[in-house]
Design brief:
The complex is a heterodimer. By secondary structure, chain A is mainly α. In chain A, helix 2 packs antiparallel against helix 3. The chains are: A mainly alpha, B mainly beta.
Chain lengths: 183, 422
């Protein structure tokens, strides 16, 4: 985010903050959806985050770190939204059949469905760790910092999240192998 | 089957496709909401925290002398007692290096310090994790849970470090569930363990202390939520704990019986402050990381001296995380963020003297956190990325590195057993 824009917003310039919101809304919504797996909860998390950010912006000393600060606020809000669990809406996953990275498309689609199921079973902090580490590319120390936990704890939780996702994939692979053998 | 080494790539690929779904149609609604929101006024410096409990103040000099005399007598008595049990190390300070405990996310193992001869420590539930040796090296505490991914589903177990006998649950008959994988904090006499937990019976979060001998559990401090994290002072006098409350996070100490709670420090926001908390071996101070500014996302290392208050240890303007105090009390290891010319960031291991005057960069050794060996000659850390079947052992004197191959990927942080000097 542009430093000058952040400093103007910090000084109470609503237009500057509106410009920042316009620029960052897509990314925030994307990140919140990945953690909550629910568009309505994602929207609530994003709006709560932006309200907090606007309200507390005057106390942010290091304007250069606005983006990371905003991301931390969003992660906390998204976790809270998952915990509240006030709605149980199911988002139909968009399937990109032309996705170029995987050669075997049918395997990848099956993996995606399994990963979706496995991911939904993770606790909200594990979800956030998976997204921050594997999608945002944060080192584990920074992911732990975003979630306010010791690195060892973050490591343990992320490890178990990863193992849970792998177990789901492997269970699916076994099931599909049995089905193919039966037919 | 998804090969072990492909799982990271598979998860990343999946998340990248998931990132395609996005909705910005509520921009106008959000801006209208923000229009109705006032900005908060600047709340002042960090030091103007509003304490809920009395701020720590040293007692009068006569009382200090009495405490010192008492401690000296207690130490002498402890030395005599320990001298009569030659197989056990002193409750704190330097000791010889024993075996290493670790978990693979499912089972706890204790192996020789080169990774050989692993034995499994069996708990009471399906998944065992986060082992921690007692200071005398004879016991291992760890979490055990039926579930892999629920936040509050674990119970604390204690087992003999050599794997003999059955693991014993702490708090049998109660509905006390801990926050699995938060490291349990041993008392220096190895007879009690402090840990953050939630009690269904009391419907309350707090810091609890379990007696290893009786299995009974008692609450010593209440916390407003699940953010607790405890560390027992080596002299046994205090339990330090972290707590998020309202829009602040604070570091407090309390007596092991729940008396005399005192706030040492607080930070604005539910921030990454005081999560990596370690006592000096002489119990005179605590080291931790916290944001240097009122609201910030990056951390610096600070020492809180119980007599003189807080001072910054890491270099000004540098981002630093995860401090650990050497067992001889002279040095602190931590990781420092280094910006490359390309703008990329990496972490380097730094060893600092306790006075903060000398910081030695050891380079890109290990990752995440570096733990001191009981004899203070080595640091144990992880390979890059942290998820690996290799531990990295760094010789402090010359920065040389050797790796320990473990039978499987290691999930959490390892623990190094303290044994008596030969």
């Amino acid at each position: 985010m542009d430093r000058e824009l952040v400093e103007r917003a910090r000084d109470g310039d609503r237009a500057a903050f509106a410009a920042m919101v316009t620029a960052s809304l897509g990314g925030l919504d994307r990140l919140a959806r990945m953690i909550t797996r629910d568009p309505e909860r994602a929207k609530d998390a994003v709006q709560e985050t932006l309200v907090k950010a606007w309200r507390d912006l005057p106390s942010l000393r290091d304007a250069d770190r606005f983006d990371a600060w905003l991301r931390q606020l969003l992660v906390r809000s998204a976790i809270d939204e998952v915990r509240r669990g006030r709605r149980m809406s199911m988002e139909v996953a968009l399937i990109d059949f032309d996705h170029p990275r995987i050669d075997d498309a049918s395997t990848f689609v099956a993996d995606r469905e399994a990963l979706e199921r496995g991911f939904r079973r993770l606790d909200p902090e594990q979800r956030a760790l998976v997204v921050l580490h594997y999608y945002q590319g944060l080192p584990l120390a920074e992911a732990a910092a975003a979630l306010r936990m010791p690195v060892g704890t973050a490591k343990s939780r992320l490890f178990r999240a990863r193992e849970a996702l792998r177990a789901t994939l492997e269970a699916d692979a076994r099931t599909s192998g049995l089905s193919e053998a039966a037919s | 089957m998804t090969p072990r080494r492909d799982i990271d790539r598979t998860i990343t690929d999946w998340l990248e496709t998931e990132a395609m779904a996005v909705d910005t149609s509520y921009l106008g609604e959000t801006l209208a909401m923000l229009d109705a929101t006032p900005q908060r006024r600047w709340r002042g410096r960090l030091t103007r925290a509003l304490p809920r409990v009395p701020t720590f103040v040293l007692p009068p000099r006569a009382v200090q002398l009495a405490i010192v005399a008492f401690l000296a007598l207690a130490l002498a008595a402890a030395a005599v007692l320990i001298g009569s049990q030659p197989r056990l190390p002193a409750p704190f300070g330097l000791a010889s290096n024993g075996r290493i405990a670790y978990d693979n996310g499912e089972n706890v193992f204790v192996a020789e310090s080169d990774g050989s001869r692993p034995i499994e420590i069996v708990g009471g539930e399906r998944y065992d994790f986060s082992p921690s040796f007692s200071p005398d090296g004879t016991l291992v505490a760890f979490w055990s849970s039926r579930r892999t991914s629920r936040e509050y589903g674990g119970s604390l177990f204690v087992a003999e470090a050599d794997g003999s006998g059955e693991a014993r649950p702490m708090g049998p008959g109660t509905i006390l569930e801990g926050r699995p994988d938060m490291p349990p904090a041993w008392s220096p006499d190895s007879r009690s363990i402090a840990y953050p937990a939630w009690s269904a019976a009391e419907n309350d979060y707090g810091i609890y202390v379990a007696s290893v001998d009786t299995g009974k559990v008692r609450n010593v401090a209440q916390t407003e939520n699940s953010s607790g994290f405890a560390a027992w002072s080596p002299d046994g006098q205090w339990i330090a704990y972290r707590e998020a409350f309202g829009d602040r996070t604070r570091l407090s100490i309390v007596r092991p019986d729940g008396r005399d709670p005192r706030e040492l420090r607080s930070a604005a926001g539910d921030v990454d402050a005081f999560t990596q908390l370690a006592w000096a071996p002489d119990s005179s101070a605590l080291v931790y990381h916290r944001p240097p500014e009122e609201v910030s996302v990056k951390a610096a290392i600070y020492i809180f001296d119980l007599a003189n208050g807080e001072r910054q240890l890491s270099r000004r303007g540098r981002v630093a995380y995860t401090p650990t105090w050497s067992t001889d009390g002279t040095r602190i290891a931590y990781y420092e963020e280094i910006a490359e010319s390309t703008g990329e960031l990496h972490y380097e291991l730094v060893i600092s003297t306790v006075d903060g005057r000398d910081h030695q960069n050891l380079g890109r050794l290990g990752d995440c956190v570096a733990l001191w060996s009981p004899d203070s000659r080595y640091l144990i850390s992880y390979e890059k990325g942290c998820f690996t079947d290799q531990l990295v052992v760094i010789t402090v004197a010359d920065g040389s590195v050797r790796t320990i191959d473990l039978p499987g990927d290691m999930a959490g942080a390892p623990s190094w057993q303290r044994v008596a000097n030969p």
